[in-house]
Amino acid sequence: MGHVRILVTGAAGYVGYAVGRRLIASGHEVVGLVRRAERIPALPAGATPVVADLLDPAAMRQALTGGFDGVCHLAALTRVRESLRRPLDFFTANVHGTVNLLEAVQGQVRLVYGSTAAVYGAPDRQPIRETEPPVPTNAYGASKLAAEQAIRFHASTGAIGATVLRTFNVAGSVDGRGDPDPSRLIPRALRVAAGRLPHMEVNGDGGAVREFVHVDDLAAAYVRALEAVRPGEQRVYNIGSGVGVSVSEVLDVVAEVTGRPVPRVHRPPQPEPPMLVADCSAAQRDLGWRPRRSGLRDVVADAWACL
User: Fold this and answer.
1) What's the pTM value of the predicted model, to 2 decimals?
2) Which among 113, 120, 140, 222 is annotated as catalytic?
3) 113 is catalytic
4) Considering just the CA atoms, what is the radius of gyration of the chain in Å?
């Protein structure tokens, strides 16, 4: 795929910025969609801004004039706990917003959609393959799965080519921009190490196993997926490191990397999956993608450097 024009929704966000940056470095023209004009300065250097709300169909149609060769759709509500309190907001933003985008895009574009491992729920079989039946346990995961389905059915008409990337936990930083969500494990642990929080609250013994992919590795997967998909195709890939680590191990590495203590207060165990680890072999096989920067120490060090 040569030089093409790509729309990136949520381009001023944590992942959207990294994706736009990678696309520009690959020689593509990037148009960054933001909901508010004050977010324009947060776009990657070289991106052309366009301001529109995904929930305003008329504004979207006007903003997307000129045509695009591809779309990376990253704008979404993403906080799991918040989705349990405000489920309708998540379905409105993540499903209705996606449908409005699909209706506004003209021509047979290549679309890469940023989905989540939350669509799987808590499967017993680990590592998780894309063939695992999705059974989301919260409104965030359910809304992303519904958006996936809308995209797939739209692709089946031949209108677009679509690749869904189901991302596991994202961490690390690019250009000094780390994960802004303090509720996530690594950002919260780093705030404890920095003395901004008194301690980490750990559910149970800290043995729950998760995995982390560097945000720049994830961005590279978007470029690969965009270049690989063809009109009418529907693909789904897991994107993660494939390496499981326990909560306690993460906190130990944070202490080692920062050289500072990470005090812990253990709370009663919570009903949560004991393990969530990705099988990323399909993305490696089909896209030629492999994580390069997703070792836990590298991820933590990059996140710590920009705190």
Assistant:
1) 0.96
2) 140
3) no
4) 19
